[in-house]
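Can you give me the bound-state structure? Components:
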Amino acid sequence: MNFKLLGLTSIIGLSTILSGCGETKTTGIEPKFMADALFHVMEADRTVYTKLIIGRLTKKDKVIKASENWKDEKALVLPAQMFRYGSERVAEKTSDFSYSLLSLWPVNAQNKPKTDVEKTGLKFIADNPGENFYANEDLGGQKYFTAIYPDIAVAGACISCHNEHKDSPRTDFKLGEVMGGVVIRIPTKS
Amino acid sequence: MKKISKSWLLSIVITIGIIIYFSTNLIVEEQEVFAPGDMTHGHHQIEMSCATCHDASSNNKPGPVLQHACMNCHGAELKESDDSHPKSKFTDPRNFARVKELDARLCMTCHTEHKLEITNSMGVTLPEDFCFKCHQEIADDRPSHKGMEFTSCGTSGCHNYHDNTALYEDFLVKHMDDKSHKEVSQVKTVSLANEISTLDQYPIEKYPLKTLINADIDAPLSVQYDNTVSEDWSATSHAQAGVNCTACHKVKQKSGELKWVDKPNHESCKTCHTSEVEGFLAGKHGMRLKEGLSAMTPAMALLPMKKSSHSKELSCVSCHSSHKFDVKHAAVESCLNCHNDKHSQAYKDSPHFIAWHNEVNGTVKADTGVSCATCHMPRTEKDINDTSIVLSEHNQNMNLRPNDKMLRTVCMSCHGLGFSINALADKKLIEKNFKGLPSVHVESIDLVKDRVLKNKTPKEGNP
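Here's the bound-state model for the whole set.
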């Protein structure tokens, strides 16, 4: 009988633990989980576009070129522009998160790190290949969870474009190197 | 005692009179009594339509200006021009410090209406050196800019805040060696048949694309008209494209029934000429009609107009004239019937007019003349239902201000980029309607040339 009671108590206890009863209620998805998930989608789309569209059509098949001035030159949108246009469309729809592509060696000077977290984070991911950087920051009175992920040179097109661009401050990028970072910001209450 | 009573009575009557006068003015067209100041050339036509821009939820007085009201009219234009400073640039949290300096998320930050005394060109009400707020370090990136005044960024012919489609560096590089005049000078050709082909709902079975003659006229027998009407129509591209009388005159009623209307308005034209009518309604000629006000008349204009035309009400047919729809007449004479500024007066003494005159007389190829409309209602490619089609842009603002919006859509059909930039920066030459050569030289292409040559030398290592 005692064993039955003990068994029943154990089952209830285990069920309680497993079902999460008694835990402090969370208010939604953890910012880090959300940022990581967003980055996985961004990185996948960015890699697919860079390899299957840009790399294949401009380098391998040579049927069309990619250009910063894609509209005038009837060319493909550059991967970095594709990323930015997506980010701008998201900004039109929501302020629940924002993202951008920054670099210590940007072609466009506007994409240099600006905040302390950006400066520290971009240096960290460049010095520690394969690692991400997470921090909290306060920008204009609003708190943010900020995640910075390495942006890797996944195709020859990435390095040739950056190494040959007249405004690029660095011209020795190699395949597989960190060229910059994807910065995702999620506003938080604390 | 009797005198005092009369004075009181008089005061009460006057007070009530004043209240009634002002109350009435709040709901009738003359809201300008309460307008806080004169409006710019861009909005004065719709001054009486407060709710177009202001929050109208309060009955007492116009509320704050609504951001989406600005975008309703100017959003498409900004998108078309690949706005160099889109809102998203300022909603990005990393740019919070810039927003503190200049809240460019809102149009009103830079363009405040009713403040004519502090309004600069382009309706900007900020001091002209506002670029300094974000670009004070520009000389670090562009040493050639060292020592340049920030008041000159947007006034010297080099940059615009929104539209830089003809001024961006790679474009200048591409065209830096352009000659002043191109070997082939011709604008794009328009075709009504092409336009019809883009219309999903066009009743092609009822109005097949075939040339019609007077015997084909399908107006009801009850409709009276003289021979001039049928002769005018039969000479038009309408008749050549199979557009019969009922195509314009049978207008859909609220009940859905098609009923003959003697004088159809722009809504009828819009059935086929959607883009042109939308442009007309968005531009200075038609914006009053769009807001439900009476039609614009030259008497209301801020530009000098001919007195003889002051009472003319602007509509599609005021320029195109009903039944004739002579686009050549609409392209010059219709404009000059009203416009009376120095630039317009000088047109018929300009080389542009000579080219137009030759085209009209058939001594040169079609589409090589330069009419008023060639520059101010240019033929531009538009994407309609995934088809690119050439149409006349009827919204003058799309390429009028700043005037370098004209570079790509107009000037560069015949001229090189550098020559065109200089010409558009020369106010006296504009007054003379481009009779002569530019006396102004804009440095932008020189600066770009220098930079390109410097970049040809190998870089020494990496930072």
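A couple of observations. Residues 28-188 of chain A form one domain. The CA atoms of residues 59 and 72 of chain A lie 21 Å apart.
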